[in-house]
Amino acid sequence: MEYRKLGNTELELSTITYGAFAIGGNMWGGNDKADSIASVHASIDHGVTTIDTAPFYGFGLSEVMIGEALKTQNRSKVQLLTKFGLVWDGSTNGKGEFFFDAEDNGKKVPIYKYASKNNIIKEVEESLKRLQTDYIDLLQIHWPDTTTPIHETMEALESLIQQGKIRAAGVSNYNASQVQEAQKTIQLASNQVPFSMLNRSIETDLVPLTLAENIGIIAYSPMERGLLTGKYFTDGKLKDNDHRNGYFGQFDLQKVKTLVEELSSLANAKHISISQLVLRWTTLQKGITIVLAGARNAEQAISNAKTMDFDLSVSELDFIDQAISKLK
Description:
The protein is α/β, with parallel strands linked by helices.
């Protein structure tokens, strides 16, 4: 495994980071607790020291399982990244910004973006309890909240750093102007944003800004939620309540299938999986600090960790870039 410094912080994170969205179950067609915890243990056993989760993932379930999985681990050797600002329990009292309606066991659950100072303090205490820890290594706002001034949110994060409840503060899904606004109040450690072979929009303005400001980029959805594995073009039927049934519709699936087929030839020649090839390519892109990779069982977790066991040559990177260029 390779470890990289996050922005201007002292945090050294594993380049492949365990992404805990899917093990929350909701929006992913459910989960298996034993497999989920085994995937965390397998990741750590193979050098992954960093885990990214959020209260919203499974409405607290993801954090609970991470906390349970880490009871047998050395906390000081694991970096916990979590978030705040997506509220589902009706506690906003009419405040915040409506985001979307999620589903929980067949029930519609309204989700609000809410990043007020009081809500942040409340959520952090809840996360600490679920994670069974007394500090969070990196706390991130999950999505921008247009109803709360950015400076109020950042002042709350600065206060939490001073209290020792968090080691560093980051944002997620912030555009360049929002990052610049936040920087007026606090030195951000990172911005967690979507980035993949199919979505490289951050390269235009966000990457240059974060490099200039010494802000790390945490790339999420590098596999486009499993689409780039190729298995959904063969036998990967999704459950009816899996959000990817709609998510995959944004892409030209025939072009994606062609891309996967081309990349598979290189993956086979290197005796690696297509998933490992895609993840490794992502880790090598300009401005990317760490890459989130989800795993729902130990086998997937080990495969993700082994991504860093090989490299890609200049000619191989050129081959990949040429294949990606055909998507346009």
